[in-house]
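[job 4471] stage=fold_predict status=RUNNING
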Amino acid sequence: MPVPSFFRSNGFKVLVYVMGSIVLGALLAPPLFWAGKAIVDEGWLAGGIFDSLHGSMDRARFSRYFNRAIVLAALLLLWPCLRWMSRGNERGKPLRERLLLERNPRWAMHLLAGFLLAGGALLLHGWIYVLLDLYRPRPEHDAIAGILASALMTGFAVAFLEEFVFRGALHGIFARVTPPVMLWIGLAAFFAFVHFLKPPRSYVLESVQPWSGFQMVGAIFGQLGDPYFLAAEFAVLFAIGLVLGWVRMKTASLWLAIGLHAGWVFAIKTLNPLMVRDFPPEKHMPWLGDTMRVGAVSCIAVLLTGLVAWLGLRGNARNAFARPKLPETDSPSGATS
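[job 4471] inference complete, writing structure tokens
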């Protein structure tokens, strides 16, 4: 009996990849949580340049480990999915080409420019908040040198991992079945949803069990109708996804996106230990929220950063929304998938 065409299509394979990442992430989250807490209890990272990471792991709830487990699962399933979707001589091509990326001779300049642009803009944003008495300096904090070193290391580690997964792997996979504009918007929304996966504020997890990841999946999907989640929590990350997705499509490279992402994370990890909000979070909604990652002002600041990136790339003749040339179109037979 012949297999229906849908089950042989790239659309079905993408669906299996997404669902598989969620299931595998739900399975990995509890062991990651237990391992992280064991490392904290042993104090292996306490003191020195890793002390900030030790504190973050100590404070992190299960939802944070679940978030990272989903990203890790997407990374682990990338290569099997690419092989499953490959046709013709594509299997012999470098991973860069299979992800629809090109060599970037200006990679170092793009990486540094993105970092300085995003990090500098957000640090300026925080300084203005302090001048307006919206935030105030923390009376006590760790040594600034240690904060900066930890923020720099965390910023680039997170940026390299997440940009490879979202703008590299997922973009390369979804581009095979999705028109460019829909891909740009859809992947930005998916990035925002996955990047900020957490249960409703009222959700209480008494203890982490082997099945807790699946409980988290149910709680997260159950809150999609919450307007606060969609407006306050989702909007800024969606804007970030739009900016990072556009520069990736404009340059056919990850380096500028990595620089921007690292700059934003670096600034957040620098500002959080040095200043604290000085107003009730509901007072200025929707303009300002619980943290600098929430609210319309932060969303506008991200889009303005994207505007500066757009101005800087005007000399690049590439059409960001042109349909990409898939690797298998280079095969001698001219066959396409």
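[job 4471] summary: The radius of gyration is 21 Å.
[job 4471] exit 0
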